[in-house]
Structures are given as structure tokens and as C-alpha cells.
Amino acid sequence: MHDQAINLIKTGDYDDAYEMLSKQYESGKYDNNTLFLMGLASRSLGDYDEAISFFSELLINNKELQRVRLELALTYYKARDLKKAKDLLLTVKNSKP
Q1: Of 4, 7, 42, 85, which cross-links 77 as Cys (Cβ 3.0–4.6 Å)?
Q2: Residues 44, 68, 5, CA angle at the centre, nearest 5°?
Q3: Which residues 6+ apart lie within 8 Å of 42 measured at CB?
């Protein structure tokens, strides 16, 4: 399922990717990849609050995932919350990934 969602996101079919992933999420049978892809799809659809929620949920139990932190920073930037975006970028920079 993740491969199909990735292909949908790569081709710009964010609605279908989101719909596919949301079924998995709502069933409670999801993993980190589902959260990450849902964050990407939500952001691409312009739903920044939802994307922030997915990326944040992923970071709660996986604080070491700097790529997710970068995606969250980009989402805050797009949502025009520049302070949070900058803080996250500095956190990644200071972690020396």
C-alpha cells in the first residue's frame, strides 16, 4: 500500500493518496510510513494543520527522525509560522545529521 501511495504522491495525485492512507489510519492499523505519507499528502493538499498533526505525531515517539523534523519545518514555513520553522531547522542543524 505504501508503494502505491508513494507513486500517487510522486505523480501529484494527492487526493487519492490521502484517501487510500486515511482508510488505513482510521482503522488504527498504521505505521510510521503511513503517518509520514499522510503528512506529505496533507501538506500538498494545503491542509497544513493536519500535516503538522501527522508529522508531530510521528516525532512524539521518534525524536531522532530529522527528515520528519525538516518536513515539519517546511510545513510550518508554508503555514507562515516562521518562528517554529526556524526553531525546527536549528534543531536539525544542531543535531548534525
Answers
A1: 85
A2: 50
A3: 18, 48, 50, 51, 54
